[in-house]
Each structure stands twice: as structure tokens, then as C-alpha cells.
């Protein structure tokens, strides 16, 4: 999927979004969680599948939900199946001598139907399933076992493994006679969700590009971001120094032009990437939002960021123009590039 199509889902939500009542949970730690593709690893009834997570040295981090990826069995097409994600999960500490599950339970719960946590015990279709728990602070290098079993359902449960995934995963099985030796044969997909973590290299950010051009009032309008563009966040871009009563136009594209601004006939710079701007138009996405400027010379554009790992790292360029009854016809702001992060 090209970058334009990846980001269409993001930009289609770049409209007024209701305020959230609590901070969005963020995927922040785990193994092989950046890609949703997975092959089936079958867990039979009566078997416990353990996956060992080694907390990185960048911790401590706080988590309040854990999820595994479940794959639909062959022939279902991923449409409706009650077998991928049945059963329960728990977190256990590791035995300091063997490294295997110690039997000391940190948290447990039924496998929930989706990202909402422990809202149900029967999942429909494949995907990320897990359970929520009271927040736990995990220490650097701590060993945490994530254990799944199908009980009390007849099974099987189809966990997902990532072929050639970036993370090697240590696991063990308990078939009733105790835990097996540690194995690294399968790259299970595991992720913790947290309200407060932001791993290095995946942080959301805004980058200011260039400058705008003067309005007939003698001021250059500005474009100021409010809030970081993290997954699930509601952020805004505020136009300032604008002429009250006029219309502010917010344009967006994928990134900005690498060769510098295009100077428009009235002398104002265009920093956005014109090719991707036109591709949005051709795809049926209107890359323009308009709002009236208030009496203080401002207009604030709400933007919503979806919870979709496919848009992580995608740079979205924004620039605003403001109608001007003077000779120029309009003035323009600098550009702001929002890089989507965890």
C-alpha cells in the first residue's frame, strides 16, 4: 500500500472530533506488533502457552492492558469465528532460577473481544485480543510471562506468529506435566498498552517549515499546533494574526516539497507537496478545511488521529491561507509537519 493510501484513513478523520474523556491508550511495548499479518499457531485445549517478555532497559513503563494476536482458522476468511480468541490470559513473574513461569500471578482475566479490554470472552474474527488490569509499573529488564489457555472453552485457540518478524520471542508450553524448556522457535505477536509510554524513535512531533507572507494588515499569519499527533489523539492547529471576519483555509499534503517553497503569483510561498495534494483530490479526499476567523484573528482547526499503526511515522504537512481584501487576495502561514507517533 503506497503512502498516499496509508494516510487517507488519517486525513479522512482530519475534521472536528469530540473531545476524549481520558487519555488514549498507546501501544508501546511488545514483540512483532507493528504488522498485523500472522500465521496460525494452534493452542489445544488443556495446554497453556507462555510467552516471555523481557522489559527493555528503557523502562520502567506503566501498562494496563496486554494483548496477543489471534488468527482466524483456515476457511473462515477472517469474517466470523468464535475459535480464534477464546479463553483466559494471565501475567506471571519468572522463576529467578529457571526463567520459567513462577506461579506468582500479577494479573489475569478473560480474553476480551478487541481493544476494549475484558468486555467479553468470545472474540469475533482475528485480531488483537487481551484483557485490562489495574496499572502495573514494570521495571527495567523485568521478566514477565504472558500465558494464554483456551479453558473453559473446548478450543483450539489460534495464536498469531510473525514469520521472519523483527523480534525473537522466548516461549514455553505447559501440557499438564509442567513447563517445557525455553524455546525461540516461534515469533509470537505480543503488545502491552499504556497511557504514558513513548518508545525512542516513534515519538509524535511537529516540525515548523519556512515562513508565511504578510497580510495587508502588516502581519504574517501563524499556524500553531496544539497537542502531539499520537495515535488516538485529538489535536488542533490554530491560525493566528489573521484578519477578523475572513475565511481561513487549511490545506494538507504528505510532507512538504524537499526542494523548497513554490512562490505563488502574489509572492506567498507554498510549502506543501502539490503531487500528493492532487492525489487526495483524485481519491475523493478533500485536502482542505475552512473556518471563519474570529474577532481575535484566530481560527482553530480540530484534527483527529486514528488508532492505526499503519500511520506511525507518516509526515502530514499543513499550511493555511487567509482571505485578504487587499491587493494580494490572501496571505499565508508557515507550514507545520505533524509526524504521527505512539
Structure report:
- The protein is mainly β and 342 residues long.
- It has two domains: 3-20 and 201-339, S-adenosyl-L-methionine-dependent methyltransferases, CATH 2.20.130.20; 26-194.
- Helices cover 5% and strands 40% of the residues.
- It contains two helices and 21 strands.
- It has helices at 3-11, 274-282, and strands at residues 26-31, 39-43, 48-54, 61-70, 88-94, 101-110, 127-138, 143-149, 157-161, 170-174, 190-194, 205-209, 222-226, 234-240, 247-254, 262-263, 269-270, 288-292, 299-304, 315-323, 330-339.
- Strands 6-5-8-3-10 form a five-stranded antiparallel β-sheet, with no helix packed on it.
- Strand 13 (222-226) and strand 14 (234-240) form a beta hairpin.
- The longest helix is centred in the N-terminal third of the chain and has 9 residues, at 3-11.
- It is elongated and about 85 Å long.
Q: What labels describe this entry?
A:
342 residues, mainly beta, five-stranded antiparallel sheet
Report low-confidence residues grouped into runs of 5 or more: 1-25, 76-85, 113-124
Broad structural category: mainly beta
- The average pLDDT score comes to 80
Question: What's the total helix number?
Answer: 2
Percent of residues in helices comes to: under 10%
The dominant shape is elongated
SS elements, strand count: 21
Amino acid at each position: 500500500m503506497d503512502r498516499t493510501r496509508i494516510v487517507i484513513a488519517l486525513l479522512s478523520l482530519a475534521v472536528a472530533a469530540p473531545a476524549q474523556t481520558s487519555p488514549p491508550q498507546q501501544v508501546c511495548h511488545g514483540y512483532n506488533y507493528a504488522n498485523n499479518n500472522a500465521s496460525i499457531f494452534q493452542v489445544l485445549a488443556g495446554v497453556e502457552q507462555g510467552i516471555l517478555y523481557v522489559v527493555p532497559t528503557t523502562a520502567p513503563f506503566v501498562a494496563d492492558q496486554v494483548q496477543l494476536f489471534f488468527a482466524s482458522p483456515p476457511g473462515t476468511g477472517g469474517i466470523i469465528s468464535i475459535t480464534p480468541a477464546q479463553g483466559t490470559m494471565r501475567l506471571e513473574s519468572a522463576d529467578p532460577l529457571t526463567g520459567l513461569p513462577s506461579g506468582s500471578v500479577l494479573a489475569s482475566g478473560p480474553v476480551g473481544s478487541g481493544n476494549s479490554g475484558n468486555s467479553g470472552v468470545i472474540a469475533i474474527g482475528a485480531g488483537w485480543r487481551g484483557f485490562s488490569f489495574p496499572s502495573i509499573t514494570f521495571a527495567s529488564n523485568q521478566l514477565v510471562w504472558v500465558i494464554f489457555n483456551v479453558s473453559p472453552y473446548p478450543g483450539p485457540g489460534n495464536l498469531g506468529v510473525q514469520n521472519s518478524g523483527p523480534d525473537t520471542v522466548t516461549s514455553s508450553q505447559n501440557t499438564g506435566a509442567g513447563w517445557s524448556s525455553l524455546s525461540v522457535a516461534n515469533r509470537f505477536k505480543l503488545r502491552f498498552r499504556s497511557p504514558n509510554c513513548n518508545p525512542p524513535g516513534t515519538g509524535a512531533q511537529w516540525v515548523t517549515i519556512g515562513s508565511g507572507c504578510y497580510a495587508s494588515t502588516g502581519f504574517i499569519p501563524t499556524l500553531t499546533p496544539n497537542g502531539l499527533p499520537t495515535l488516538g489523539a485529538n489535536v488542533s492547529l490554530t491560525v493566528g494574526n489573521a484578519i477578523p471576519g475572513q475565511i481561513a483555509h487549511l490545506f494538507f499534503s504528505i510532507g512538504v516539497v524537499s526542494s523548497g517553497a513554490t512562490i505563488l503569483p502574489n509572492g506567498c510561498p507554498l510549502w506543501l507537496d502539490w503531487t500528493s495534494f492532487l492525489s487526495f483530490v483524485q481519491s475523493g479526499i478533500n485536502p482542505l478545511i475552512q473556518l471563519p476567523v474570529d474577532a481575535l484573528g484566530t481560527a482553530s482547526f480540530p484534527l483527529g488521529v486514528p488508532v492505526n499503526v499503519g500511520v506511525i511515522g507518516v509526515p502530514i504537512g499543513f499550511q493555511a491561507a487567509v482571505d485578504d481584501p487587499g491587493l494580494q487576495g490572501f496571505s499565508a502561514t508557515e507550514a507545520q509537519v505533524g509526524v504521527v507517533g505512539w
